[in-house]
Design a protein that fits this description.
Length: 685
Amino acid sequence: MVRYTKQEAKEWARETLKGQWTTLTTPFTPDNQVDEAGLRKNIRHVRRLGTRGAGCCWGMGEFWSLSREERFKVMDTVADEARGQWPVGAHVTHTAAPEMLALARHAEAAGFDLLIVAPPYIAAKTDEQVIEWVRLLADNTSLAIMFYNSPQFNIVVSPQNLQKICRIPNVVGVKEASFNQQLSIETHLLAGKEAIISTPDEWIFWRAKELGFQQQVMFANTSDWRFDTPECNHYVQFIEKATQGRLDEAFYERHLRRLNELSDAWWTRTVDKFNGTLPVAMVKYWGELMGLAGGPVRAPLPNLTEEEKARLQRELEPLKPRPPAVAAAPASGRTAWLTANNNFASGMLLMVSVQDLDEALEAERGGADVVDVKNLQEALVGSGHPSIVRQVRAQIPADKHVSVTLGVVPNQPGTVAMAVHAAAMLNATSVKVGFCETTYERAVEILRESRRALEGTNTKLVGSLFADNPLYKGLDPYLMVRLAKEGQCDGFLIDTLTKDGRNLFDFIPEPDLKEIVFQGKQLGLSTALSGHLKIDDLDELARINPDIVGVRGAVCADGDRGRAVAWQSVARFKHEVDRRKSGEVPVHNVAAPVAARDNGHGHSNGNGNGHHGGWAVVDGRGKSCAGVIAALTQQVAGDPHSFVETILGDALNIYDVMLWAERAGHKLLTQRKESDGSLRVLIQP
């Protein structure tokens, strides 16, 4: 809603056109009508991103395909949603002067704050024609005007003539979208002090810093609603700071670079495919993937093919912004990564070994909890190249785990420590250090030096032994728990090296693995098992209940570990893991033993045998099994007199909790199933 006179337009613009402005598309219904409800939904969504203002009926709004009545309808809808509280601009470009002026009058009457106009794209062939066209509009409206300089309108105005346009009284600036960097820079330098010049691409901020000018508004693009969510508005944050002269390059690198690279790739690919046509269909479908209304584009624009849609969805999904995890109560020592809320899912996680970025994306798409980068081509398993780790870490969402396998490491503490440090610098969640032919003492030394190399980082140290080490006269795998403890590890992995068809259970039987894993959990160590495991092994694995199950061959095409990881196979394996975690597939032959059943009031039938103390709750939902046991151990050690109620979200974890209680001499008083599927167990220390 206008709050300035025509003479005050430039001053108003200096105060109002700041930060991130957006470009709204025009959503259509399947029967090719303007989707008013979808447009309202989109506006509300964009406003929640923190975007400063919006423009409608632009090139991305397919204005050329809209009738006059449809453009009026879009304007009225946008103005109604803005309600004078959110500045909005209307694009009034047309090939006929009477139509342009009619659109301008309607926008002003509807309560718009400014107009956007481009050259009449049929007859205007000279800069002088364009200048007079803009002057015609300015003479017939009191609204502020931004000129749109883009090759989409078949003429690009020079910097000198853009300066002349900006000297028209109520023309407040230029959206300089010529795709010519030198032209944009010259326009900023020539006219930027007297008018608002905005180049709708992030590169301008780096050049502005070099050349000493300042762009105060990103006017306007689609990056806010394609890159951001209301819970995670990294793009809007970046633009807000950049338009104030604070270019946060580290923030851009961390949160936006990969998204922008994906956008550039798709933008270029789509534009080239159709000889320069705006990629409206790509942008609208991208918006749909972020929760907005889009729908088809109108002829003669082409829609994306189903194959293109599937590819865009696959490539965008791992890059979508995720809100940071809500902080939980602090935990002490290295067990904090298990007991605190660090996005560990409850119960067994699925780890998929990958050799390149394509496999990593397949694993992530299939639902893998941990993507593990390794090199299967090197003898006895080796580490992936740092460039691959960097690519994978950049593509996989920050709340998902990316681990690095160093394989069987040499007996050189300094060399291994350097490799471990490199993994941390690549932001790996964890790094696995494996041993075969070495002494126990040297393995401890290497792990301790690796621990020292990780100081000040968040990367976790995982020691690894191989169940088939005796075949190579290697270190006894039954030493795993002791080695992980004395080597100051955060967790351990037991794997295999042989490729002759035998797997983990051919070398260590289920009862022994159960004991090894349980001992690790009691020490607060993350536990992981791998080694040619297949879906047929899941019942045994579920009874052992390690925190992580690692696979490769079982999730490759046709089950051949030499072939590529396939997301469908990952999803199938993940589904079977989840069925056992939920209890849908029972893996224990007997019901969980409890001392007494709940009487419906959340207390035991007895009085606790005279037990005196308080009541503590350990919420095990969202924690690994090791995290639950570590939290219970810490609670009882710090307060041995209080009842402890633990809430478990996983059907498998209850058996380990009961085994822990039995071995420690604690009493299990009640067990109650909640409506949400969780289980509450009351323990008397």
